[in-house]
Amino acid sequence: MTADFSKGAAWMDGEIVPVSDAKISVLDWGFTRSDCTYDVASVRNGAFFRLDDYLERFQQSLAKVRIEVPQTPEDMRDIVHAIVGRSGLQDSYVAMVASRGVPLIPGTRDPRQCGNHFFAWCIPYVHVIKPEIAARGAHLFVPEDVRRIPPDSVDPTAKNYHWGDLTRGLFEALDAGFDTAVLLDHQGNVTEGPGFNVFSLKGNSVRTPDTGVLEGVTRRTVLELCSELGLETEVRPIALSEFMESDEVFTATTGGGVAPVTRINDRVFSNDAPGPQTKRISDTYLSWFDRPEHRQPVTYV
User: Fold this and answer.
1) Using CA atoms, how far apart are residues 38 and 59, in angstroms rounded to an integer?
2) Cα gap 181→263, rounded to integer Å
3) Using CB atoms within 10 A of its CB, is residue 272 exposed (0-12), middle (13-18) or buried (19+)?
4) So what's the pLDDT on residue 301?
5) Homologous superfamily (CATH) for 131-289
6) Pairwise CA distance, residues 296 & 48, whole Å
7) What is the pLDDT of residue 1?
């Protein structure tokens, strides 16, 4: 029977398999403790976007969480190219994961005594904020009693699966009739949402939080292109009161790019429609996918 890769592919222990066949042990600390780190890149129109930047950040995350795998960045590049090439997906959401692994000594509580390992998978492209929601502008909810995990407990700059706070925020947002959530830190400053960074536009200035957030490659791309567009950029704490006085608000994520926000709690932005500056930034972001310096074409099997 011919393997079906149409829904995605995975690299596990040196073998490429359909994503539905990818498995890890129930004893793996990545599963039992969320003790892992990962990164997600995208393929658009048959080419990776800024893959080397994602690989660089992944290496930084590995060092921060003290996971060591035998694969080099070059190996990882080859692996993700191979799985996308095998899947045939022209637009894909591609994850690289390193887990603490299964304890080498049963029952140990010593994280140094686990078999660290790397795996990767790809699926059809994912929009964190669905296109139909982005078209009318996302509605965000800021819960009062759910705060971001402090960075001195879980470092958000090492991409991780510690989503307990984000999931609680999502439940509150969805129960209240909103699309998604953005969390505050314990000082009352805006941080991020489940899978995306947030930006505030005020006049000619584009602002994004500096703490409690993943330093996303898409976030970096937005800051770079805003400078190219002649907009001022600021990376600093943003209090909720300041955030709510923005002219425009938008999100940024590998899964979907730039998406406008038109409502936060009971505040309506841009006359309840995507703002002109956000559209300009989104259009520019999409155009960067065609820049040769950012593209790595995939060779398809």
Assistant:
1) 10
2) 11
3) exposed
4) 87
5) D-amino Acid Aminotransferase, subunit A, domain 2 (3.20.10.10)
6) 5
7) 67
pLDDT of 162-185, one tens digit each? 999 999 999 999 999 999 999 999
CA distance 198 to 265: 15
Per DSSP, 212 falls in state S
pLDDT tens profile 202-233: 999 999 999 999 999 999 999 999 999 999 99
* CATH architecture for the domain at 9-124: 2-Layer Sandwich (3.30)
Report the greatest alpha carbon distance in the chain: 60
Residue 35, phi then psi, degrees to nearest 5: -90, 80
Q: What pLDDT sits at residue 117?
A: 98
Task: Domain ranges for the chain, please list them.
Answer: 9-124, 131-289
pLDDT, position 132: 97
**Three-state SS at 184:** strand
Q: How far is CA 223 from CA 23, 114, 208, 220, 252, in A?
A: 37, 39, 9, 5, 11
Task: Give this prediction's pTM.
Answer: 0.95
Q: Is residue 92 classed as helix, strand or coil in its secondary structure?
A: strand
Radius of gyration of the chain (CA): 20
Residue 79 has pLDDT above 80, yes or no: yes
How far, in Å, CA of 257 to CA of 39, rounded?
16
Residues 249-267: what's their mean pLDDT?
Answer: 97
Distance between CA atoms of residues 199 and 277, nearest Å: 12
Q: How far apart are CA 278 and CA 185, in angstroms?
A: 25
Indicate the DSSP class of residue 103: B
